[in-house]
Amino acid sequence: MTTSRLGSQPADARPGVLARHPLVSFFVIAYAGAWLLELPVVLSRTGTGLLPYTLPPIAVLVLIAAATFTGPTLSAFVMARATEGREGPKRLLRRYVLWRVQFRWYLFVLLVIPAGVLLGAIVLPGVLASYQPLTLGLLLGYPLAFVATFVLGGPLGEEPGWRGFALPRLQVAYGPLAGSALLGVLWALWHFPLFWTGVWTPPTLANMVMFVVMTTALTVVIAWVFNNAEGSLLITMLMHASFNTFANKIVVPLFPAPLLDAYGLLPVLVGFVSVASIVVAATRGRLSYRGERRTQETDAAAVPRERSGLHRR
Fold first, then answer.
1. Within 13 Å and on the Cβ side, how many CA atoms surround 179?
2. CA geometry: angle at 259 spanning 258 and 265, to 5°?
3. Is 109 within 8 Å of 225 (Cβ atoms)?
4. 46: buried, middle or exposed (CB in 10 Å: 19+, 13-18, 0-12)?
5. What is the band of 13 on the pLDDT scale with cuts at 50, 70, 90?
């Protein structure tokens, strides 16, 4: 099996501004493609109320879900074609179903990640005392909620971009820790319009700061899993769905504490900062990144910094 190097240009790649500045181009398309769909929600009475119209709830949900595909997914495939030629999108698609990874990584994303969120909740003042027994309805509804979150809640639409295209190049250009931290900040900022849609966490300064820190810590952990799972997008999608579903469908109903009602991001923040700190310390900041490494579908070879589109200063 042949693979193209991230720093090379296949004969059928499309030369131009996209190929010359792949990372900048990717983020511009990812932001624009999503924000254009979210803007009608933000401007409506459902959101900021700047314009005098109301969107049906189903329309709000459809637009927000679709934005993940018109943003990161669309951008990833456009940029894969521009930088890797006709084989680029095919390689990206095959990584959707790259499931042959060590079983322990499935256990980590499906069990350890929820455990981290749970521990992040119960260590907070007054949370454990608010515990409500787990009901059969919550237990039976979890698999359905997991599937719905996987398809429409971000994992399937976002991961091809953030981890499929951006992360390998950011790690090569800036190193695993700095590259994943930069991706975490950019990933968090991409979500910011959702604060003003009326269906998300209120846009307070505390919530936005917590979200950026939480997302950055989470990105570090996902990068570590990604590097150990041979670049599998399936694993990162499962991890994304795991923490989203568990935090919203299990932790919130089980612990209706006033603190979590006011600061709902706290459990995830505490949980992922703790896990990320352990990962960084255990790997000495390398996040199991092995540099020029040929995987089943991607070759993490050196990308010349002048080609990455994001330069160190």
1. 29
2. 125
3. yes
4. buried
5. low
Which range is least confidently modeled, 44-58, 133-147, 288-302? 288-302
Q: How far is CA 296 from the centre of its chain?
A: 22
Q: What is the DSSP letter of 112?
A: I
DSSP-assigned states of every residue in 66-115: HHHIIIIIHHHHHHHHHHHTTHHHHHHHHGGG---S-HHHHHIIIIIHHH
* CB-CB contact of 308 with 169 (8 Å): yes
Of the candidates 154, 172, 159, 126, the residue with the CA atom closest to the CA atom of residue 247: 154
Residue 195 structure tokens: 């604060």
State both tokens at 221. 């952990």
Directed axis angle between helix 205-228 and helix 233-246, to 10°?
A: 140
Could you tell me if 42 and 129 are in contact, meaning their C-beta atoms sit under 8 angstroms apart? no
**Structure-block tokens of residue 121:** 């909740």
pLDDT of residue 17: 87
Q: Tokens 């849609």 correspond to what residue?
A: 197
pLDDT > 90 fraction of the chain, expressed in percent and rounded: 81
pLDDT of 174 > 70? The answer is: yes
C-alpha count within 13 angstroms, C-beta hemisphere, residue 294 = 5
> Contact 229/100 with Cβ under 8 angstroms?
no
Q: Give one DSSP letter per residue of 277-308, joined into a string.
A: HHHHHHHTT-TT--SS-B-SS-B-PPPPHHHH
Residue 194 carries which DSSP code? G
